[in-house]
Amino acid sequence: MRVALFVPCYIDQFYPQVAIASLELLEKLGCEVSVPKNQTCCGQPMANSGFAHITSGCDTNFSANFSGYDYIVGPSGSCVLHLKEHHPDAKIRASVFEICEFLVDVLKVKSLPSYFPHKIGLHQSCHGQRGLRISSMTELNEKPFSKLTYLLDLVKGCEWKYPERQDECCGFGGTFCVTEEAVSVKMGQDRIQEHQANEVEFIVGADTSCLMHMEGILKRSASNVGVKHIVEILNAHA
Amino acid sequence: MLNHAEASEKFITNQERTDWHDDTLWFVRSKRDKASKLLPEWEALREQASQIKEHMLSNLPQYLLEFEAKAQANGIQVHWAKDAHEHNEIVYSIIQKHGDKALVKSKSMLTEECHLNAYLEQKGIDVVDTDLGERIVQFRKEVPSHIVLPAIHLKKEDVGETFHQHLGTPKGNKDPQFLTEAARIHLREKFLGAKVAITGVNFAVAETGEFVVCTNEGNADMGAHLSDVHIACMGIEKIIPKRQDLGVFLRLLARSATGQLITTYSSHFAKPRAGQEMHIVLVDNGRSRQLARDEFRNSLKCIRCAACFNTCPVYRRSGGHSYHQPVAGPIGSILAPNFDKKANVDLPFASTLCGSCSNVCPVKINIHEQLWFWRQDLMKEGLAPAGKVLGMKLMAWMMSNPSVFRLAGGIGRKVMSWFPFLVNNGMNPWFKQREMPAPPKQSFQEWYKSNRS
Question: Smallest Cα–Cα separation from A219: which of B428, B431, B412?
Answer without folding.
Answer: B431
